[in-house]
Amino acid sequence: MLDIVRAADPDYASLQHVYGATGAPAAILRPRTAEEVVQALAAAQETGGELAIRSGGHGISSISTNVGGTVIDLGRLDGITRLSDTMVRLGPGAHWGHVAQELYPWGLAISSGDSGDVGVGGLGTTGGIGLMGRSHGLTIDRLRSAQLVTADGALHRVSASEEPDLFWAVRGAGANVGIVTSFEFEAAATPVVAQATIVYQLNDAAEFLERWGDLVEHSPREISAFLYIGAGAVPFAQATVVFASDDADAARVALAPFTELPGMTGQRAQIVPYAAVPLTTDAPHTGQQRAFTHTGLADHLDRDVSRGLGQLLAEGSTQMVQIRSAGGAINDVPPDATAYAHRHQNFSVTAIAAGDSPRFAAAWEPVHALMTGMYLSFESGRDPGRIVEAFPPDTLSRLRAIKAEWDPAGVFSQNFDVTRPSSETAL
Length: 427
Ligand SMILES: Cc1cc2nc3c(=O)[nH]c(=O)nc-3n(C[C@H](O)[C@H](O)[C@H](O)COP(=O)(O)OP(=O)(O)OC[C@H]3O[C@@H](n4cnc5c(N)ncnc54)[C@H](O)[C@@H]3O)c2cc1C
Hints:
By secondary structure, the protein is α+β, with helices and mostly antiparallel strands. The chain is built from twelve helices and 16 strands. The site of flavin-adenine dinucleotide has 37 residues, from strand 3, helix 4 and strand 9.
């Protein structure tokens, strides 16, 4: 029988909130199987009201809980199963840190993101810019099939040959077309990597960023590099640089230029299981990390982008800027192959603030103007106009046609609804 948790139940307090928001749903439905997800969706539709779909509860826009509505919590669908040499089946409720830990003894890994607490469901339906991205592509680029419940309550297996339109949409805009109940990924035989943590003092942030961008773009594809910069007059930055191989000599050569950038104040590099790379805390969700972010994708950290970011860091309303490498294998995939269409940019750029102030929005705007796309998983703003940044015109029209066929009533409209009117001025 479908488990329904309400406010009076003992489990409610541990399920009502997510990472970035507190919530007080009227009912939290906790399916154990795909068939129970079908039942949960039917129950939610019968009840009406606000609906939230939750896998790991780490969505930046914090829409996987609500007040007074229904949450379908997929946390119990957290299986991690090896199907063959490299194929694995993952439940949406599994967390990427646990996936990495399970895959390690099998000699496998899947590039996900820097947080091991992120759920398979949210990241696996949107993109996955990870610390082996330049080597292995986006997480969704390794997806070979999925099982999905559509708005009419039907269960589908989707792949390149089964419901290919839905399979295309799931890889970048999955939240718009249904609830994914399992994913089959082709993992990579890269269980061990070199990981460097490097700290810099940025006396001239703009100059540093230009050099950082150039270095990352010209590094071998085994290198993926994330940079986290704390704002201030003289910002400090911490980098996580991964060389996706256990070849220590090659790693040493590839990592050395990162230690030669100006302002390096400390560094540590080691050969580690990939499972040690995503930071996994398993902390309970209490709405502890409200995020106010703006984000975009940049072709290059050229002079203008770097100067813009330097000014943003000095302006005062931004707490942190995160720069994740994209490019490499991510850009080998044709833009029309998946609903995530941004296949020419080399960097994801995200600004984080303590509050969603007009000042923060204004400070972001000069950088925003230089962006050439958007990865919607890093955006906490809910302006429907930004849809055109996430999905270029051809992608958006195809998505709208698929949505009209599979979700005409807009059951799955919570997460960057592609049917919402937008300014249609694509970047
Ligand atoms: C600390 C932190 C670090 C991060 N780092 C990275 C990173 O390095 N790279 C990266 O790419 N992303 C990163 N992210 C973003 C992350 O990928 C997204 O926030 C993702 O949506 C979280 O997935 P979740 O399942 O935990 O989210 P949830 O909050 O459970 O879900 C978010 C939304 O996704 C949709 N969704 C979830 N599950 C399903 C499903 N099974 N079927 C259909 N739709 C579904 C729903 O609309 C849901 O409301 C990070 C986020 C955080 C908080």
